[in-house]
Sequence to fold (416 residues):
Amino acid sequence: MDSIRIQGGIALQGKVRIQGSKNASLPVLAATLLVGEGSFIRNCPRIADVHSMTSLLKSLGCSVHWQEAGIFVDSSKVRRGEMPREAVTGMRSSLCLLGALIGRCGEVTMEYPGGCVIGERPIDLHLAALRQMGVVFSEQKGQLRAMAKRLHGAHIILPFPSVGATENIILAGVAAEGETILEGAAREPEILALCRYLSCCGACIEGAGSSKIVIWGGRRLCGTEFRVPADRIVAGTYLLGCIGVGGNIFLEQAPAEEMDAVLLAAQEMGGHVCITREGLYVQAPVRPLAVKLITSPYPGFPTDLQSVALAVASKGSGRTDIEETIFENRFRIVEELKKMGACIEQTDSHRVAIRGVDSLQGAQVEARELRGGAALVAAALMAEGESFVRGCSYIYRGYENICRDFRELGARVTSV
Ligand code: UD1
Fold:
């Protein structure tokens, strides 16, 4: 079931419930390691990356049980911070286990983390910050080894608001002795979710969601129950998808309060959005209008929705310019969209200019990473005729069931 067959050209209609957030659930699951008791994490999405994370937690000695409403994780038996090779290389988010395990065990051995192939993904900011907190790094048989005789608070200034580095500093800071002051922190809602979970467990954290976070570490943490918020990127995928495909839809539980930049872009493209307590109504324009988009850290337009915006612009009226400032090599769908008749010029590794065409045609295309893959499904829904998107295992890393979701919105989509 690695391909998706799509019959395009049908306007979307209906409602879909938005799954729990991938980027919030993964660091929260990593954080259960610090607690040493059982936690129940509700609304975790049933996606490949969460399954990989729970396997990693199990391999570290956690007892993990999936239930209807969420995942129960008990980390009381964790003793050693040694992670199996295969699990780590496939998933970038395994990197936040570094901060959690250093906090819990004082030592970690792990592979350099993997993830989507979207440009250089160095970890220098993570390492520099943890060094300031007393961690010593070495390389052993090609693996990364981290040791902290005494993990202590520090005053850390991040030169770039890296999401992953902010998560690692928070996780290590909660376990460290004394005060950690983090300036230049990422402000993504997923950081807030992580801090909320840790605070529910008894951690003392101030400033989460702002660029300055202060953590008073070393407190005893207890297990808790926590609900993962809805996924703003999945909601944004369906929202922008509707703008491109046409129709009107309701995104139940969409976290509109975290989606300002995306809602603005959707409105500039000619869409109408209406926020209610239950979710988000979207009405598509006859044809998407051309816009200028620049990705940036939160609260800017998210890099994770750049590909789907690009797909929508392919059928827009006029010229859209997109600048990707977070990652290079994140325009891997350009060649695939061209197979559908899109007219896109890539100026350099950070910029594309798209001249909207009247219609796209169905084609056989290949997903090469998670968000680009979802964008190809959206493009195929916009195209006339039948398309096949191959390489869909990437998509399942982040979307519980993209076929079911689009079917609920009236699309003809099947996994084959
Ligand atoms: C990034 C996105 C996040 C998205 C995720 C998955 C931002 C700011 N972050 O998070 O929203 O959900 O990818 O697509 O939009 N960097 C370094 N050294 C480091 C760490 C990062 O130079 O040690 C650079 C990266 O190369 C990149 C930028 O910082 O250019 C963003 O990295 P970071 O936020 O850490 O990436 P993720 O945590 O993967």
